[in-house]
Design a protein that fits this description.
The protein is α/β, with parallel strands linked by helices and 221 residues long. The chain has 12 helices and 5 strands.
Length: 221
């Protein structure tokens, strides 16, 4: 029985996704989360999650950082990005950072069902309207290199990097991870080397490079 985690902070949209997913796959088990912390907690407690439908702009997630976190810490879990942003360059970046598919929020329920079936069958999926333009969108050397460097981090190193980006000190990180401070320092040394940076500030900037503006908020403004 496959397990799907729907990650979105809008209850009505989660309900629509749940209904479409139930129609797409028989005996599908569906979990829900409304923040990135909730997603990571669910993945930590449930080893049976096969697929995450991830909103790019849910609380705690401001772009591709959440995708990178999931791919680094739970590489066996497939992720389909769900977003109001259908810019081909953003879609290309999401694929470069490990997304198995990309679903615009304007997509119909038939496309959602198709996406879930395809990704659970270990295929990459894009809506027909985006395939040609995304194929023409070139991967940037910067994104390709960044994705490779982030993928080289261990799950624990990525957690440390996330806390560094939040501005936490070594002792605070050690307390969060229930490890000794010297262990955090060792992780930081490895992180600096693998990311090609010299200090905490530069390491934090690496994650912030994955942030994206939220089109829905721009419209509200």
């Amino acid at each position: 029985m496959p397990t799907l985690l729907i990650a979105d902070d809008h209850p009505l949209f989660r309900a629509a996704l749940r209904g479409a997913a139930a129609d797409a796959v028989a005996q599908l088990q569906v979990l829900e989360a409304e923040s990135l912390d909730g997603v990571l907690a669910a993945l930590e407690s449930r080893a049976d999650v096969d697929l995450v439908l991830l909103d790019l702009h849910m609380p705690g997630n401001h772009g591709l950082a959440g995708l990178a976190a999931i791919r680094a810490q739970y590489p066996a879990v497939a992720v389909v990005v769900v977003s109001a942003n259908d810019d081909p360059r953003v879609v290309r970046r999401a694929l470069d950072h490990g997304a198995a598919g990309y679903l615009p929020k304007s997509a119909g329920l038939d496309e959602l069902r198709e996406a879930i079936r395809a990704v659970l069958a270990c295929e990459q999926w894009l809506p027909a309207s985006l395939r040609a333009v995304v194929a023409r969108a070139q991967s940037s050397d910067q994104d390709t290199e960044l994705a490779a460097r982030l993928a080289s981090l261990s799950p624990q190193q990525f957690r440390v990097l996330g806390y560094v980006a939040q501005g936490l000190l070594n002792k605070q990180i050690a307390d969060r991870l229930d490890v000794q401070e010297r262990t955090v320092k060792a992780h930081l040394s490895a992180i600096f080397e693998r990311l090609g940076v010299r200090n905490r500030t530069q390491a934090g900037v690496v994650l912030r490079e994955l942030e994206l503006s939220d089109p829905s908020r721009q419209l509200e403004g």
